[in-house]
């Protein structure tokens, strides 16, 4: 093992204490020596304040970008994240989480007897208990071969990292980004050996070295022909039969420890099994999602071209398709209803859909890229009655001589052959949309700005904001904002319009303009740390939770506490779906 020349482990230091669940092993690239790997960045004011409080008598912390998995010196958990994973002391090379920095011993360097025990703290559920090198199937399955994977058991989760091995079959280059997370808090989590029927493409000589991890399965149909609930399996292969036995025993003991610890349940989602079906439901104030139990590719082939979905209530989910428009799924009757009637949906490409329960309106992005525009659909259309989708635009009065573009059409009879009323399709060519409530004021009355709801549409380098009203068209133009760049994301949250760009974001108050001094100002030092690289546009905010979609899972964060609270093992899920169903995702 190699060490940076500027870092030396004190030779007489005794081994650190450890919990009983700790498995000791030789030095790896994941141990303290890698705390130096990475680039240090400038400290924010909160870190400067911490350093100033120590008056030069303690650590000099800076944010650090790590290029290899690294443990926190205080809690021994992995410093998870894509960037700025933690803090780094320039003097003693001590690394820790931002939230652990206030509890770190101020003495620099930290004395060995002040170190936290290795392993997982059974009372808090944090720490690293086990790590090692295994193999996992390649993307095409076992028949495509196996790839080296470095596994770290941390915080009752398994982190799977891509890695490169040397000639001695030791990991010498571990990628900093987690490829896959397996959560031991999953109610169906289990570790067992395999039989020949479980891995039919594996070499028979490798069977004794292979073990599998079981997690909840919510992909497609939830039951088999005999009524048994299906599960999801992840295969791992150790170097030898003895190593496989160690892994199985260690993981099962940790699962037992987790049950005995009775840690507080923080999951946003849970799998409930009742009778012969398993259903995935929200534990927050959102509808129960049973869509995967109603339709799959076999019963509804059109699900293959589904583009988006949104939950209306406990019995209805609206799905947008690439060629047949938008349909409402009535879960209690297992039926599909054309939103606004069959004629209104014929041949329509629905790319995105959002629902505003307060205004009982659907906001829909319709059309191929060159003809893309936004329409409003009243919730009354969900029962299949013939209702026109309202085009989001502006009614303008002009002179007949000025009407030259085919985009304008006459909406009223000519008066004296001079003046007409025509409509401009302002949202044509849009690429983002959002809908939400404006900021409330203490004295807001009915109809005031504080009670207004808004629509925002991004077109090239501008964002047009509309107010939702009670007129026939249900909207009117409120403001057009020029953007400093091409908007990458758009949202209306907490009474504010938030626009994200490649390297920054901006926010505007909607409605109440009296208290804007804190907009876009940092309010805390803790940051959200994504364990895996998100998919493009792979975010969904279901307050107070943020769902981050990556290739192998959905990671759920509590935005208010900046905590990573759950991992859902679903592969290649489309973030455009506000309900978690693999039938929709594929």
UniProtKB/TrEMBL annotation:
Q: Name one GO molecular function term.
A: metal ion binding
As its record notes, the protein acts as a catalyst of: L-threonyl-[protein] + ATP = O-phospho-L-threonyl-[protein] + ADP + H(+); L-seryl-[protein] + ATP = O-phospho-L-seryl-[protein] + ADP + H(+)
Chain positions covered by the region annotation Disordered: 1-40
Stretches of Polar residues bias are at 24-36
Per the record, its GO cellular-component terms are:
cytoplasm; cytoskeleton
Phorbol-ester/DAG-type domain boundaries: 58-108
Q: What InterPro entries does its record include?
A: C1-like_sf, CNH_dom, MRCK/ROCK_PH, PH-like_dom_sf, PH_domain, PKC_DAG/PE, Rho-assoc_Ser/Thr_Kinase
Q: Which Pfam family is an annotated match for this chain, by its short name?
A: PH_MRCK
- Judging by the UniProt lineage, the source's domain of life is Eukaryota
The answer on whether this UniProt entry bears the keyword Zinc reads yes
Presence of keyword Metal-binding: yes
Supply the CDD domains for this chain: C1_MRCK, PH_MRCK
Q: Name one GO biological process term.
A: actomyosin structure organization
Q: Which UniProt keywords apply?
A: Metal-binding, Phosphoprotein, Zinc
Location of the PH domain: 127-256
Q: Which PROSITE patterns match?
A: PH_DOMAIN, ZF_DAG_PE_1, ZF_DAG_PE_2
Q: By its UniProt entry, which PANTHER family does this protein fall under?
A: MYOTONIC DYSTROPHY S/T KINASE-RELATED, SERINE_THREONINE-PROTEIN KINASE GENGHIS KHAN
Q: What is this protein called?
A: Protein kinase C
């Amino acid at each position: 093992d190699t060490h940076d020349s500027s870092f030396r482990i004190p030779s007489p230091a005794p081994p650190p204490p450890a919990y009983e669940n700790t498995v000791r092993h030789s030095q790896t690239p994941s141990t303290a020596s890698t705390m130096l790997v990475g680039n240090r960045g400038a400290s924010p004011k909160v870190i400067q304040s911490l350093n100033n409080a120590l008056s030069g008598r303690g650590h000099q912390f800076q944010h650090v970008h790590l290029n290899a998995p690294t443990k926190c010196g205080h809690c021994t958990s992995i410093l998870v994240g894509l960037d700025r994973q933690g803090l780094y002391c320039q003097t003693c090379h001590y690394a820790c989480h931002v939230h652990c920095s206030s509890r770190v011993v101020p003495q620099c360097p930290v004395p060995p007897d002040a170190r936290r025990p290795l392993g997982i703290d059974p009372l808090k559920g944090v720490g690293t208990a086990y790590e090692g090198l295994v193999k996992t199937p390649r993307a095409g399955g076992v028949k495509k071969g196996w790839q080296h994977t470095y596994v770290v058991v941390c915080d009752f989760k398994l982190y799977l990292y891509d890695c490169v091995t040397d000639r001695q079959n030791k990991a010498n280059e571990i990628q900093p980004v987690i490829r896959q997370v397996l959560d031991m808090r999953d109610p169906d989590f289990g570790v067992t050996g395999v039989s020949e029927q479980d891995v039919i493409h594996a070499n028979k000589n490798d069977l004794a070295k292979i073990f599998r991890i079981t997690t909840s399965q919510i992909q497609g149909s939830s039951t088999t022909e005999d009524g048994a609930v299906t599960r999801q399996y992840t295969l791992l292969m150790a170097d030898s039969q003895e190593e496989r036995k160690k892994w199985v025993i260690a993981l099962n003991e940790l699962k037992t420890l987790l049950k005995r610890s009775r840690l507080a349940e923080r999951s946003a989602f849970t799998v409930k099994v009742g009778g012969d079906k398993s259903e995935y439901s929200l534990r927050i104030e959102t509808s129960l999602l049973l869509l995967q139990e109603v339709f799959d590719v076999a019963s509804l082939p059109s699900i293959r071209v589904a583009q988006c979905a949104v939950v209306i209530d406990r019995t209805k989910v609206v799905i947008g398709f690439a060629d047949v428009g938008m349909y409402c799924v009535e879960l209690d009757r297992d039926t599909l209803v054309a939103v606004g009637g069959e004629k209104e949906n014929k041949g329509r490409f629905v790319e995105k859909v959002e629902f505003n329960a307060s205004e009982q309106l659907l906001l829909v992005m319709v059309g191929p890229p060159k003809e893309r525009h936004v329409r409003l659909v009243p919730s009354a259309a969900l029962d299949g009655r013939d209702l026109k989708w309202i085009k989001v635009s502006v009614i303008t009065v002009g002179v007949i001589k000025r009407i030259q573009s085919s985009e304008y059409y006459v909406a009223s009879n000519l008066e004296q052959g001079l003046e007409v009323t025509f409509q401009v399709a302002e949202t044509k060519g849009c690429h983002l949309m959002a809908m939400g409530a404006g900021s409330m004021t203490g004295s807001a009355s009915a109809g005031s700005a504080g009670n207004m709801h808004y629509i925002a549409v991004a077109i090239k380098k501008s964002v047009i904001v509309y107010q939702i009203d009670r007129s026939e068209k249900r909207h009117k133009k409120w403001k057009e904002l020029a953007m400093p760049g091409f908007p990458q994301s758009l949202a209306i949250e907490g009474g504010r319009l938030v626009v994200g760009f490649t390297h920054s974001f901006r926010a505007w108050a909607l409605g109440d303009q009296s208290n804007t001094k804190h907009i876009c100002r940092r309010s805390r030092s803790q940051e959200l740390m994504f364990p895996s690289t998100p998919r493009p546009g792979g975010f969904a905010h279901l307050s107070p939770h943020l769902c981050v979609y990556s290739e192998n899972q959905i990671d759920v964060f509590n935005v208010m506490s900046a905590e990573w609270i759950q991992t859902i093992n679903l592969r290649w899920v489309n973030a455009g779906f506000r309900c978690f169903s693999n039938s929709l995702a594929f």
